[in-house]
Amino acid sequence: MAISQLQIHNIRNLRQVSLHQFSNINIFFGANGSGKTSILEAIHLLGMARSFRSGNTRTLVTHGETQCTVYGVSTTDSKPGGIPLAIQRSLNGDVLIKVGGQVVRTTAELVEYLPVQLLDATSFELLSGPPGARRQFLNWGVFHVEQRFFPVWQRFQRCIKQRNKVLRHGKLGDAELAVWTRELALAGEEIHQYRLMYFEALAPLFREIMRGLAPSLAGLELRYRRGWDKSLDYNEALRASSQVDREQGYTHAGPQRADIKVSIDGFSAADTLSRGQQKLVVCALKLAQGQLMTEHQRRSCTYLVDDLPSELDALHCRLVCDVLAEMGSQVFITCVARADLANMWPEGAKTQVFHVEHGQISKVAG
Ligand SMILES: Nc1ncnc2c1ncn2[C@@H]1O[C@H](COP(=O)(O)OP(=O)(O)O)[C@@H](O)[C@H]1O
Ligand SMILES: [Mg+2]
């Protein structure tokens, strides 16, 4: 899977950008404020219909304009001609998503055409931040390898909302509560099974990548937590917590509480590792996801890597670049000076360099 064309209109300082002839590794260099992160933002928008920097369209759209558009063509081995994708976001809140020229209603219908992975300055929060980010990470992976996941996920969301509503309204709704509890138990158990299967495939890939990136962190361990007592099935867990659920008016146990615990020699990795080391762990997690996706689906994801050299020393930068190049995924990566990333790639890697200057992008020869 690769982007073969990209047109950006009114995203931050990128008023009108048209790019094609991408390579596997696409390096964007330029001074601070030139528009590098905005390019990654535009590609993220193309794949996910939203920015990674801000949920607020007002900051994304070029000041003084009312809407931004990104258009791109995503090619795959089976569709070498590519599938055109277009996203438009307006200040009034409207979002228009087109896949293959047809309007689609939901982001879920878009994301399979251009799965994107982001590695940027905020990525280490995957390790140190609240569990929600790690659940999202897990869901992203499961979504892309297991088609049955998304409908169950939707069903689960519906059930838990209804169940919590009944819980808030007290004793009167006992029969209704039983119905939603039964439905919730089924959906929750299934979500857990998909996540567990995914996690068990991911963990060894992660370990392998980590061994290459930082052999000194061999004591690193990943553990998946399902969100309830593992000696119980979900139905039993719901029954066990029904008293507290009633008292507090919401569902305590379940996949909505799942997490991935990362530890080193028995201690929390987030509390122990340096920021640089945490960054490496997050890189390894996201690289492992990409590898797993390629193995399972024979599809690859697109990596958006912002300012790697400012986060990692040269040696580790090179090691991450090695894994990226080896995977064969398309990469869009930024740096300040051309030299920062020019010599990071293994021999034979297909690279293309672009210079970014005041929102204008030019291809650099050689
Ligand atoms: N909504 C906006 N409209 C116009 N310009 C913006 C907007 N938001 C940010 N900018 C400007 O866009 C430029 C590009 O930002 P960014 O892509 O983060 O730069 P880089 O990553 O190259 O340092 C910055 O100079 C910033 O001030
Ligand atoms: Mg930037």
UniProtKB/TrEMBL annotation:
<keyword id="KW-0235">DNA replication</keyword>
<dbReference type="GO" id="GO:0005737">
    <property type="term" value="C:cytoplasm"/>
</dbReference>
<protein>
    <recommendedName>
        <fullName>DNA replication and repair protein RecF</fullName>
    </recommendedName>
</protein>
<dbReference type="InterPro" id="IPR042174">
    <property type="entry name" value="RecF_2"/>
</dbReference>
<dbReference type="InterPro" id="IPR018078">
    <property type="entry name" value="DNA-binding_RecF_CS"/>
</dbReference>
<dbReference type="GO" id="GO:0006260">
    <property type="term" value="P:DNA replication"/>
</dbReference>
<keyword id="KW-0067">ATP-binding</keyword>
<dbReference type="Pfam" id="PF02463">
    <property type="entry name" value="SMC_N"/>
</dbReference>
<dbReference type="InterPro" id="IPR027417">
    <property type="entry name" value="P-loop_NTPase"/>
</dbReference>
<comment type="function">
    <text>The RecF protein is involved in DNA metabolism; it is required for DNA replication and normal SOS inducibility. RecF binds preferentially to single-stranded, linear DNA. It also seems to bind ATP.</text>
</comment>
<keyword id="KW-0234">DNA repair</keyword>
<keyword id="KW-0238">DNA-binding</keyword>
<keyword id="KW-0547">Nucleotide-binding</keyword>
<feature type="binding site">
    <location>
        <begin position="30"/>
        <end position="37"/>
    </location>
    <ligand>
        <name>ATP</name>
    </ligand>
</feature>
<dbReference type="GO" id="GO:0003697">
    <property type="term" value="F:single-stranded DNA binding"/>
</dbReference>
<dbReference type="GO" id="GO:0005524">
    <property type="term" value="F:ATP binding"/>
</dbReference>
<keyword id="KW-0963">Cytoplasm</keyword>
<dbReference type="GO" id="GO:0006302">
    <property type="term" value="P:double-strand break repair"/>
</dbReference>
<feature type="domain" description="RecF/RecN/SMC N-terminal">
    <location>
        <begin position="3"/>
        <end position="358"/>
    </location>
</feature>
<keyword id="KW-0227">DNA damage</keyword>
<comment type="similarity">
    <text>Belongs to the RecF family.</text>
</comment>
<dbReference type="GO" id="GO:0000731">
    <property type="term" value="P:DNA synthesis involved in DNA repair"/>
</dbReference>
<dbReference type="InterPro" id="IPR003395">
    <property type="entry name" value="RecF/RecN/SMC_N"/>
</dbReference>
<dbReference type="GO" id="GO:0009432">
    <property type="term" value="P:SOS response"/>
</dbReference>
<dbReference type="InterPro" id="IPR001238">
    <property type="entry name" value="DNA-binding_RecF"/>
</dbReference>
<keyword id="KW-0742">SOS response</keyword>
